[in-house]
Design brief:
Layout (H helix, E strand, L loop, with lengths): L1 H25 L2 E2 L12 E2 L2 H12 L4 H20 L3 H19 L3 H13 L1
Antiparallel strand pairs: 1-2
Helix pairs in contact: 1-2, 2-3, 3-4, 4-5
Length: 121
């Protein structure tokens, strides 16, 4: 498992400068607005994409788990760029939490508790 951590970390370090250039080139950045976003200059969004890509490559998780990670990551990136209705996002995250918990748990009480806690942590 250590190889997964080290490999993912190294690949992320390699990908971040490359994705940073792409983000600035195509305007995939968070621009300051002096209200909610009080940073001084534009911040690229694709750093998380480098981490997710590296994580998917090096972790031994099943395709099932990786699919959920991809869906949540793409939804987060889309929300950063275009803004998703919070209720829609909450619903999608709740459904994914429910599907993940039903895949690995059998007791209905555990499924309900896990679904709620997966959403908040």
């Amino acid at each position: 498992m250590l190889y997964a951590f080290v490999g993912s970390f190294i690949l992320t370090l390699i990908l971040i400068p490359f994705l940073r250039k792409i983000a600035f080139k195509f305007g995939i950045v968070d621009k300051p607005d002096n209200k909610l976003k009080n940073h001084e200059k534009s911040t690229p969004y694709l750093g998380g994409a480098a981490f997710v890509f590296s994580f998917l490559i090096f972790t031994p998780f099943s395709l099932f788990r990786k699919m959920y990670i991809v869906v949540l990551s793409l939804m987060g990136l889309y929300d950063d760029l275009k803004s998703i209705n919070p209720w829609l996002r909450l619903t999608i995250e709740f459904i994914i939490g429910f599907l993940v918990s039903t895949r690995f748990l059998t007791n209905p009480i555990e499924i309900i508790i896990a679904t709620i806690f997966l959403r908040f942590f």
